[in-house]
Amino acid sequence: MPRKPAHQQIDTLKVIQDSAFDLFARYGYDGVSIGDIAAATGLSKGALYWHYTGKEALYLDCLKRLHGLFDEYVFGPMAIEADGVRSVMALFYGLERLLVDPRVVNGVAGYWLVPSGRETAVLAEAQRAFEQRSWKVIEATLRRGVDQGQFDLAGDLEDFARAVMALGEVVILPLRHQTPEEVRRILGVLVRTVFRAYAKSAPLPKI
Fold this sequence. Notes:
The chain has helices spanning about 5-25, 35-40, 45-50, 55-80, 85-100, 120-145, 155-170, 180-200. By secondary structure, the chain is mostly helical. The longest helix is centred in the middle third of the chain and has 27 residues, at about 120-145. The N and C termini lie far apart (about 55 Å). Residues about 1-10 have low confidence and may be disordered.
């Protein structure tokens, strides 16, 4: 079969990636088949295998896209902010912005359903690596705040960083069912709770 022109290959690849990203986000790795993706795209299975060796490779590509969104909205802004308080606030602002991104309009809970089988070990490892890297960003953010005299975390810094990481997951998974205003109010409560518990005489920020 003659090879498609480059622009048609790119268009087809985008259709595959967009459809697969949405399906995996809703149903997870085990809940989606190559046939499901082919049906959603209107392409043949052969067209999918033209671009990807299999479902694992396609899922990994989609997982990296999700990680890129978190980096764009949340962890990137946190990492470059020098002020501890503003860096913590970047976490909540980032979550608020991410939740209204049209690419995650149907949620992303499926990406937390990575199976633990041997054949999918690379997928689980990619998710673990992302979570570890994200936790390090949060830890560095909190440490800046402590070093700048803004937070009093005593011996809780590492555990609190992990708690914030878990909080982010709790927020991002179900809040797609909320309106933007409801999301803003919920995040505002979380911000006030964090600062009331750990801030050292810093003015209570608003979100």
